[in-house]
Amino acid sequence: MQALDGVRVLDLSRLLPGPYATQLLANLGAEVIKIERPPEGDYARAMPPYVELADDQFEGAVFTQNNQNKKSVALDFDDARGREILLRLCERADVLVESFRPGALARRGLDYETVHARNPRLIYCALSGYGQTGPYAKRAGHDLNYLALAGIAQLNGGCGETPVPMPVQVADLAGGMHAALAIVAALLERERTGVGTFLDVALFDAAIDWMQTVLGAMYRAEGENPPRNATPLTGAYPCYNIYETRDGEFISLGALEPNFWRAFCVHAERPDLLDFQFDSEAIPRVAELVRTRTRAEWIEFSAHVDCCLEPLLAVSEAFEHPQVRARALIRTDGRVPRFGQDTTDVLRAFGMDADEIDALRASGILGTPI
Predict the structure, then answer these.
(1) How confident is the model over 213-224, as pLDDT tens digits?
(2) Is the pTM of this model over 0.90?
(3) Which residues have a catalytic role annotated?
């Protein structure tokens, strides 16, 4: 039995942050029902690159990765009849997750107050870019924008070079994690109070939260903006840096603790570097040392020397890494629902009869049957 067995989640979100949050809940055993509006459903289904599923159909790769073991219900809740069906579903759900701009669902008669009146135990999680309040509440944005305003994007890139976008959607995923954590906490609180709650979760808030843990702490301590590629953990120290190997590959050295730095210097036969662990002027000397061996030779070195040294892997190599395989970290075998695939089964489970479902389908509210 998993921690969230028996918890039913209605997921109205799209693209990445919301689906990632509900994927975390599904991984913990929750029943996640995606409510997707016809005719296309979640936009991520149509975003390249594509993955071919077992039935010779294609879905967007990001969609398939973040919507495994969920159910899909096609439902046009812009229509009054579809909205009433969604409210009926809410009566028998534990959690609702939505990722519309603030006010969008209220205009459809699906605001927290309305839903709460139908089911006081339901936890309503509104996941948005900038939150439900503040001057940016209704402003459009994406991950890059949140990181820009949080002071993170400015620091990503080489010293003296143009900042570059992050390779992973940090704010989106951090916001998804915040949402999942808040939902689990709200479920725990409901066990004590018997009443659900409204959760205001913002991707920008998550970016600020992550920024202040290190970068913000440095600013408060020193009173100066951290420099690009020259903060303690982004290239300022010889002991914590990325270096090029003899064959043009790269290794990461994270020898922050004295014992790790000592092990690296001694076993690399460079005791002359021992006193320069945090001296930025010694970085070229360490770089020269690293270039004396290939990546494979440094991998062999790290297998016998405990010094926090690892190679920079390509995504394909990371997928095949023995630690990844041993812990089964890559999700590839989960059921990915086709758009609207579970509509009939879910509505029947919620008490609707076949005639009512057929009539709704004929009206187009349930989209095209699968």
Answers:
(1) 989 998 999 999
(2) yes
(3) 172
